[in-house]
């Protein structure tokens, strides 16, 4: 229907916010985790293993939540823009053009910022659980499956694709509700249900449709996660290796000159 009415490009509605934003928040989430993990190592209690977790350290959990908080601040308005554009809505409160001076003042106004951060609480909860699950799975994989993780191409794809997709399976009900809230979606076409909060929406869906309804859209979601996160981790790992190669080569040249 979309292709027939809008053409092939209609399938890419809402592309710009995640295209620009994911480059920022996906970089930030790993940077924030690395900084927190490294600095927490100064405190011995964070490096102690949590009982009955097969070697999991406290700093993995703390760093995951810190990473999620930083990511959520950047991701929430971008996700809202994407969802509103995909559903044919405007993400701006008023009607002024965003390219005019009035439009920019409106976009940066307190009211508009509040609109852009609609769903921040559920995004933070979803992302905290998502990143914590992801980094725990990566931590276990590095320690328990070194032969798989250290294999070129397969290892990065496993960490990025498999670990991330398993994490999305855990948090999908929160992702489902988050999308509803940010899209201003009504439940069963009833306007009085449009402004239900997260807990109320979860209860309503569970009561009327059952638990499996919270996993609506999981197949395309997991497919996207497997491909996107798997390939991005492969590229990320390649760029890291390339950086080290360039730095080592530069160091060798400096030594030769000396």
Can you put this structure into words, describing what you see?
This protein has 258 residues and is mostly helical. The protein contains ten helices and no strands. The protein is globular and about 55 Å long. The mean pLDDT is 85.
> In DSSP terms, counting alpha (H) and pi (I) runs of 4 or more, how many helices?
10
User: Gap between N and C termini, in Å?
Assistant: 68 Å
Order of helices and strands: HHHHHHHHHH
Mean pLDDT: 85
Defining traits:
258 residues; single chain; 10 helices; mainly alpha
Brief rundown of the structure:
By secondary structure, the chain is mainly alpha-helical. It has helices spanning 2-6, 16-40, 58-86, 101-107, 110-116, 120-144, 146-149, 154-182, 198-209, 218-257.
Topology summary:
Blueprint: H1 2-6, H2 16-40, H3 58-86, H4 101-107, H5 110-116, H6 120-144, H7 146-149, H8 154-182, H9 198-209, H10 218-257
Helix pairs in contact: 2-3, 3-6, 6-8, 8-10
């Amino acid at each position: 229907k979309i292709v027939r009415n809008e053409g092939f490009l209609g399938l890419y509605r809402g592309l710009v916010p995640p295209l620009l934003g994911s480059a920022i928040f996906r970089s930030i989430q790993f940077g924030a985790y690395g900084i927190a993990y490294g600095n927490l190592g100064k405190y011995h209690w964070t490096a102690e293993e949590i009982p009955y977790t097969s070697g999991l350290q406290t700093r993995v959990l703390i760093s995951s939540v810190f990473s999620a908080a930083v990511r959520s601040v950047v991701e929430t308005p971008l996700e809202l823009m994407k969802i509103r554009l995909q559903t044919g809505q405007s993400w701006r409160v008023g009607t002024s053009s965003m390219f005019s001076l009035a439009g920019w003042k409106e976009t940066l106004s307190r009211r508009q910022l509040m609109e852009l951060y609609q769903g921040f609480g559920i995004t933070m909860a979803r992302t905290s659980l998502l990143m914590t699950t992801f980094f725990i799975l990566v931590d276990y994989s590095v320690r328990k499956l070194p032969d798989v993780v250290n294999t070129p191409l397969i290892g990065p794809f496993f960490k990025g694709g498999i670990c991330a997709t398993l994490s999305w399976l855990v948090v999908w009900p929160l992702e489902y509700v988050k999308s509803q809230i940010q899209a201003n979606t009504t439940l069963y076409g009833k306007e009085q249900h449009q402004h239900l909060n997260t807990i109320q929406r979860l209860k309503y869906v569970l009561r009327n449709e059952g638990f499996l309804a919270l996993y609506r859209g999981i197949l395309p979601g997991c497919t996207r996660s497997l491909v996107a996160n798997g390939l991005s981790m492969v590229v990320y790992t390649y760029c890291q290796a390339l950086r080290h190669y360039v730095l080592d080569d530069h160091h060798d040249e400096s030594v030769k000159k000396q």
